Amino acid sequence: MRPMHFDEWQPWDSLNPWTIEARGKSFTASHKSMPAPYALSYKNSIYAPDRIKFPLQRVDFDPNADPETGRKTENRGKSKYKRVSWDEATDIIASEIKRIHDKYGLYGILCAGDGHGESKNIGSRHGANKVLLNYLGGYTELARNPDSWEGWVWGAKHSWGCEMMGKMVDHTNVWVDALRNTELFIDFVDGETTPWGGGQIEMATQLMRWCNDVGIEWVFIQPSLNYSAGIHGTKWIPVWPNTDCAWILAVNYVWITE
To answer: What average pLDDT does this structure show over 205-220?
Structure first.
């Protein structure tokens, strides 16, 4: 939950730090790794005075009532809640699982999955919940499409020829050339906050700020005015959702023909 200062555990020089000289300026990597803002916010969540620290049950919910007529489902979101013990809560969950199995079968329970992540927490969409339901005989899985880093670390190298190293890394010499020679970037993503998932926010932030420092212009093309466009952008061009590919093809056509 705090930055890692590299020079605290070994001399900075031993990490072989690099420096880029471009347009009369010097750029070097940071001496520390900065956590993403949403990671820092976990402290506030953990110690928040209004955090729910124990099980709650709707006051007019009767777990023994008929599920079709006696649960008073019309009061969901309206009624107050009362505190119950952990044993009471787990008993209700167990009885509901058994009830659904008896009435609808093993596959009557839908268990949500996700694209990645293996924390094995009870509340995680990858861990103990699926193990539990497997032990009970099975379940129906809701699998999200793999729309995260999979395409970047695996698919991109077949299209662009770059080999990723298991995390987001900088392509060799690309930023040296960019800082020295580039006049304009056309961007279709939020280049600063997107890498938060890979723990590389400080590098993306530095690179974009460096480009601003040497006068490189950024044109952002996307439906929403995202963080990068608002902070680093020279111009924002809004387009309708799902029309960006057509826009790219049009730009490429102009570049090639003119």
So the answer is: 90
Q: Is 19 exposed, middle or buried (0-12, 13-18, 19+ CB in 10 A)?
A: exposed
Contact, 144 vs 113, CB < 8 A? yes
Q: Per-residue confidence at 166, pLDDT binned at 50, 70, 90? A: very low
Residue 145 Cα to chain centre, angstroms: 14
Residue 59: predicted pLDDT: 95
pTM to 2 decimal places: 0.54
Instruction: State residue 184 phi and psi, 5-degree precision.
Output: -150, 135
Beta bridge partners of 125: none
C-alpha span between 218 and 215 (Å, rounded): 9
pLDDT at 73 over 50: yes
SS3 185: strand
149-257, superfamily in CATH? Dimethylsulfoxide Reductase, domain 2 (3.40.228.10)
How large a percentage of the chain has pLDDT more than 90?
38
Between CA 46 and CA 235 the distance in angstroms is: 39
How far apart are the C-alpha atoms of 115 and 48, rounded to whole Å?
29
Boundaries of every domain in the chain = 149-257
Hey, CA dihedral for 9, 12, 15, 18, is it positive or negative?
A: positive
Query: What is the spatial distance between Cα 181 and Cα 146, in angstroms, rounded to a whole number?
Result: 36
Q: Distance (Å, rounded) from C-alpha 236 to C-alpha 230?
A: 8
| Better-scored residue on pLDDT, 205 or 217 | 217
